[in-house]
Design goal:
Elements lengths: L1 E5 L7 H13 L5 E5 L5 H14 L5 H13 L8 H17 L4 H25 L4 E4 L7 E2 L12 H8 L7 E5 L2 E4 L4 E3 L5 H12 L3 E6 L20 E3 H9 L11 H5 L4 E5 L8 E4 L11 E15 L5 H14 L7 E3 L3 E7 L6 H5 L3 E15 L5 H14 L6 E4 L5 E7 H16 L6
Parallel strand pairs: 1-2, 1-8, 2-5, 3-5, 4-6, 8-10, 9-11
Antiparallel strand pairs: 6-7, 10-11, 12-14, 12-15, 13-14, 15-17, 16-17
The protein binds aspartic acid (ASP) and magnesium ion (MG).
The site of aspartic acid has 12 residues, from loops.
């Protein structure tokens, strides 16, 4: 069994949908189970419709017309999603009447995108003679916390998914990504781009052979192609590398989306729906092929570097505990960190600062430097001193000042902090150093 997850861009037009159905048809022997995003930009359009209902009037012609056109072009029954469209209309009227759009209501609003998507795709498969049924996330067993817009999957989901999908022999199930319900029956969403996570969760629950994420890119690249034009898709990556990459800047995967797959050691393949024969990037526990230690270089700009120095003579452990408690209370997530007996330096993204200064000043002095970039070299490192020497020699040759370095915590990530203004140059010289050593190309 495999999971095939199609993102919004793979479902943007009737033509794309026909092509995706043809891809599914080719994989029938592997017993595919489909997870779908909302078609095209439907999620954005639903967000806009909600805002406009709140402030002006109920308009959703773009959403209705878009889906009706696709239904017509695929030759499906015109009334296929009339029920959902009228429900959507009522919801928007409600929002407009009471002039309120809570995150709970917004989750219900956004759920219409995925719900329309699976009904259309599944009907099209049936029309092609491929037996198929559609499932809304909750009917497939997904149950989450009640944190709307960023709900977390609850552990009991795994048993429920197995139960809900126990009867799918001989059919292709088409399941909504991104949406679920909480224990009270309210609709929830897993965060933008959450369909990958749904695919990963269902894949783990059923112990599938492979999870395929069909996107509009060739996989995970060795660097950001806007800054490094020769960046190339990686053939294989370990889960640890993929997670570091996602966390430290690569946009293709959300950091948490592959965690369930990783726990169950199920390979995840990122594929380009515009070029289905291209292998894409395979993420697995033990990659076979290795070009070099460093497989990718990512960056994250607009970070702040925070220096915290103890003002009281607290012992080191007491000081660290107090500081981290403040971070936990403020739900701040730190990326790179270095500590000494009485001081800590760490990075945060620029939008995380508001209450931090005030809280820290109760126990320490705090100095904040903005406009910093984190550059991360990802790859399993065998010889640390060699790697560090190479990095420092390259950056020094360009007179780039490295303000902090973090290495060793994960063995797959070495992160450096430089000024935003020097990020592009740093990236270029490091890419040159690790991907084209000694002028080879
Ligand atoms: N439709 C949702 C979004 O656009 C979820 C997804 O595409 O994964 O964020
Ligand atoms: Mg989308």
């Amino acid at each position: 069994m495999i999971i095939m997850k199609f993102g919004g861009s793979a479902l943007q037009t009737a033509e794309r949908i026909r092509e995706m159905a043809a891809i599914v048809q080719k994989h029938l022997e592997q017993r595919p189970l489909l997870v779908l995003s909302a078609m095209g930009n439907t999620t954005e359009n639903l967000i806009d419709a909600g805002q406009s209902a709140l402030h002006q009037s109920v308009v959703f012609p773009r959403i209705e017309e878009f889906h009706r056109n696709i239904i017509a072009q695929l030759g499906l029954p015109p009334k296929l999603i009339d029920g959902l469209l009228s429900e959507l209309n009522s919801l928007l009227r409600g929002i407009s009447l009471i002039k309120e759009l809570s995150s709970k209501t917004r989750d219900t609003l956004l759920s219409f995108g995925e719900r329309m998507s699976v009904r259309i795709f599944s009907a099209y498969l049936n029309q092609l003679g491929i037996a198929s049924s559609y499932f809304d996330g909750w009917d497939a067993g997904l149950i989450t916390s009640s944190d709307h817009a960023r709900a977390e999957i609850l552990p009991e989901s795994y048993d429920r998914i197995r139960e809900s999908l126990s009867d799918i022999k001989g059919i292709v199930p088409v399941i909504t990504g991104y949406i679920a319900k909480d224990r009270l029956g309210n609709i929830t969403t897993l965060g933008r781009g959450g369909s990958d996570l749904t695919a990963s969760i269902i894949g783990k629950a059923l112990g599938v052979d492979e999870i395929q994420l069909w996107k509009d890119v060739y996989g995970i690249l060795s660097a950001d192609p806007r800054l490094i034009p020769e960046a190339a898709p990686l053939r294989q990556l370990s889960f640890a590398e993929a997670a570091e990459l996602a966390y430290f800047g690569a946009k293709v995967l959300h950091p948490t989306s592959i965690l369930p797959a990783m726990c169950a050691a199920i390979p995840v393949r990122v594929k380009n729906h515009r070029d289905p024969d291209h292998l894409g990037t395979l993420i697995l526990a033990e990659p076979e092929s290795r070009e070099s230690g460093v497989v990718a270089i990512t960056h994250k700009s607009h970070q702040v570097l925070v220096h915290i120095t103890s003002t009281r003579m607290l012992g080191q452990s007491g000081f660290l505990a107090r500081v981290f408690q403040i971070f936990a209370d403020l739900k701040l997530s730190v990326d790179v960190i270095a500590t000494s007996e009485v001081s800590i330096s760490l990075t945060l993204s620029e939008n995380q600062l508001s209450q931090l200064r005030e809280k820290i000043e109760e126990i320490a002095t705090i100095k904040i430097e903005d406009s910093k970039s984190i550059i991360s070299l990802i790859g399993k490192v065998e010889r640390s001193s060699e790697l560090l020497e190479k990095i420092m020699r390259a950056l020094n040759s360009e007179r780039i000042d490295v303000q902090m370095i973090s290495h060793g915590a994960s063995k797959t990530n070495t992160s450096l902090i430089v000024n935003d203004a020097e990020m592009q140059r740093s990236l270029a010289i490091l890419y040159q150093t690790f991907f084209h050593p000694r002028g080879q190309s």
